[in-house]
Amino acid sequence: MKYNIVQLGCQMNISDGxxxxxxLDKMGFTPTDSEEEASLLGVIACSVRQKAIDKVYTKINKWxxxxxxxxxxxxVSGCVLxxxxxxxxxxxxxxxxxxxxxxxxxxxxxxGVVTQAGMRPLDKGLEEIESQKEKSDPQMEGLQxxxxxxxxxxxxxxxxKSDSSxxxxxxxxxxxxxxxxxxIPIQNGCDKxxxxxxxxxxxxxxxxxxxxxxxxxxxxxxxxxxKSITLLGQNVNSYGLDKKGDELSFAGLLDSIGAxxxxxxxxxxxxxxxxxxxxxTRDVIEVIAKYDCLAKQIHLPVQSGDDEVLVRMNRxxxxxxxxxxxxxxxxxxxxATVFTDIIVGFTGETEAQxxxxxxxxxxxxxNMAYIxxxxxxxxxxxxxxxxxxxxxxxxxxxHRLTGELMKHSLEYNKKLIGQTYxxxxxxxxxxxxxxxxxxxxxxxxRFASTDEALIGQYVYVKIDSATAFSMEGQMVEHAYxxx
Length: 483
What we know:
The protein is of the alpha/beta class. The chain has 14 helices and 18 strands.
């Protein structure tokens, strides 16, 4: 039997999907890129964006029409708000939180599907992660809502809980989608309760993964030849705060990884996403500066350049605090690229407040900014407020801010012309006869080559020309193994 999984949303969902594929492979299913060929169809959903949820409904409506001609099993997991989950229960066969993934074989077996796993509680490859507690009805256990939307006025008194059973999920080895790039989840959930964000209501409160497991997984990836590894979490730099005294801090975790990188001959770049300015401390930046394997690229979401808007967003950081962090980065890691996230058209954002965001784009000169036009999400606090910025105003602000970003990124990229950079080749470029690569700072470089054996390897490229979001050059050297 064949399966097809649609993955939507962020890198965390991509990482989750790799573990889902591992479970299905262990059960005897085989993957297919064709939905029409599959008997098992799933979605790793994202309630953070309405467009992503709309895609889920489009998929399940199409799939349910196919039931008239063939037997199907459908499921949805990932980041799902309680309101969305309620609707999905009416259309999907199975709806479960990602922490219940170890129970997926039982859920599927209840539909009469015979696979290599048969009717056993868990496939042999999953026995070591089987939950110790007996579940009277695993399928219904997977359908239970895991979160109650908290009181917006006082999130600390909310009923929202951490999903401690996520640790069983972390024990599943992913089916990596690449042989040279990998994700390592280091925590789940979020305690920040930004008013525009649905994540605390889809993933619960923060839970940190044991650092010993993280380090073991990383060392195995490096030994297997992975060259780009990203630590994942909703707020990675709050890692360990839920286990004070019993776990490393985020700076401590990075230091352990850096020390390991220094002790071996293999070369790799270690990234992390996403940090929160509130928890970004100078010691984290000092550790990144200290070790070669800790990539000199920092993604630091700002969301708005106006303090009043930041208060309404419940970001819990001011622009002065954010400015201190960027100053530390520029001082300690002057070669680092800096990326950010920004929302335009948030409820109540005035033209003057938006201009403050334009000002910080000019001040910090980001290499990249992921700019979103605000849209309310059910369950998040701001969904109670009027979405009072017209769509045409949001669109106009988006284009103005993007134009400012392009101006500064182009200026930065042009300064690199004539220099040679070590890059990691990621695949064929859209431009025929070229390969696409990333610098350590995650800047895009293409170069003329049809040698697909270079994909997944480091090469050296001398930059000849630049645009706002990419550069072009000539390969001057490559190494098939940096050992």
